[in-house]
């Protein structure tokens, strides 16, 4: 597993403890809780997890504070998982 994938999984783990945010993420992605286990094997889904966090700075900072993750690690994971064709909004 790459560091970017590990960051995405850490974000998902954090979201699992934030019911309101997890519900919003699932609604936006059209994923249901029972299909999460299989979805984490999809690189596009992992990119979506990081993109979700990157799309809202207060949520990004809350994740970083709660998990002691430097924001730069999330930015790096976003760049790696989104690829050169989809650099996202940094």
TrEMBL record:
It comes from the Bacteria. InterPro entries: DUF3572. This is DUF3572 family protein.
């Amino acid at each position: 597993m790459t560091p970017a994938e590990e960051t995405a999984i850490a974000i998902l783990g954090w979201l699992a403890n934030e019911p309101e945010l997890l519900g919003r993420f699932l609604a936006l992605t059209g994923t249901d809780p029972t299909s999460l286990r299989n979805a984490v094997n999809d690189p596009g889904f992992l990119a979506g997890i990081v993109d979700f966090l990157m799309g809202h700075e207060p949520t990004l900072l809350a994740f970083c504070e709660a998990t002691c993750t430097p924001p730069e690690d999330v930015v790096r994971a976003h760049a790696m998982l989104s690829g050169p064709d989809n650099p996202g909004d940094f």
